[in-house]
């Protein structure tokens, strides 16, 4: 595998250097080094060292060539190397080289485009569909997408399936690097439209069909429809977004799907240091009796919860309530400071507490549970673009989760705080 990475890097550098000899290629590259640590994520005993840490390197190239007559090609190969350590498994090394994106695009007219191949889907606030660019191996799809972008209207229609790129996660088995999910027999067909009232305000509407065939590793026999609207606007320093999404469908087992989720956020930006103060409320009704006849927890087409409901990944947009207070400021050129406080709780105490992916339980539900206060998460982040080194960005993040009564009830009375931190150096050239 290391030979594969060396080969991928050699090809990437060769492609990048090709711009010097062929003006028709537009190429750039990105190298990211990240260290991250997680401590006491089981809330059992903060005094005992239960820290997991990882150090990863990610390199990718972006290369685009315009062949004329509306035809262009986009390539994005990448290579990843991870060193991961846990108290249970010790240190493991994982590596992978793959194509993150590789597609052909044909511009049918000044406002119509057709894209075929491996591509990312990024829409709205990315609550449902996004690229997960912060991950080592981000999300991407194989398929076809048609785009109509003219005046105030944008409409994308797509038919894709998740590409077979492994989510690299440590494994004690050989080879040491297994996929969290296999993508066989899973399809995504949908349409996402936007109407702009003015350049900074408008409405999104979308419909997504997510189907799992009988061969799928997860969610066998699901056929789910997700549809919703999103309002957005900016004016005179104010900004606001509101989104409502609904879900229906059925499972092969005879279970019917009926769920919904809602989000509203607003902020005001002061001229001083371009400081934005924000408030947000996220809510999704839970399933008080999971597994009985119908399924009322929201199921994600492909989750992007990490950016919305706490960077420590204890929550998804399902059976939850989240009050979020935020501040973002730029005290000097190149430096951005961000702070978020999440007050998190369950909607239904007896329901499942679902993690960031929305399919795994932080704690399984039980009819005996009565507590809903999950806890408070504080996330602090600093982003600095180094002026003396063009393209270099440094990021530091620290997260603290103070558990509430719901954790103590589900964890035999143990509810010590958890912490999360990372440092990133990212160089784009």
Q: Which CATH class of the domain at 255-429 is shown?
A: Mainly Beta
> Structural class, please?
mainly beta
Biggest sheet, in brief?
18 strands, antiparallel, barrel
Beta-strand level of the residues, as a percent range? over 45%
**N-to-C terminal Cα separation, in Å?**
26 Å
CATH topology of the domain at 255-429: Porin
SSE pattern, N- to C-terminal: HEEEEEEEEEEEEEEEEEEEEHE
**Given the C-alpha coordinates, what overall shape results?**
globular
Total number of β-strand segments? 21
Sequence stretches where pLDDT stays below 50 over 5 or more residues: 1-22, 175-181
Radius of gyration: 22 Å
What percent of residues adopt helix (DSSP H or I)? under 10%
- The number of helices is 2
Mean pLDDT: 87
The CATH architecture of the domain at 255-429 comes to Beta Barrel
Task: Provide structural commentary.
The protein has helices at residues 2-17, 405-410, and strands at 25-39, 52-68, 71-86, 90-107, 112-119, 141-150, 153-162, 186-198, 201-212, 222-235, 238-251, 256-270, 275-284, 294-295, 320-332, 335-345, 353-354, 361-363, 373-385, 392-403, 418-428. The chain is globular, with a radius of gyration of 22 Å. The chain is built from two helices and 21 strands. Among the domains are: 1-64 and 74-97, no CATH class; 255-429, Porin. Mean pLDDT is 87; it is low at 1-22 and 175-181.
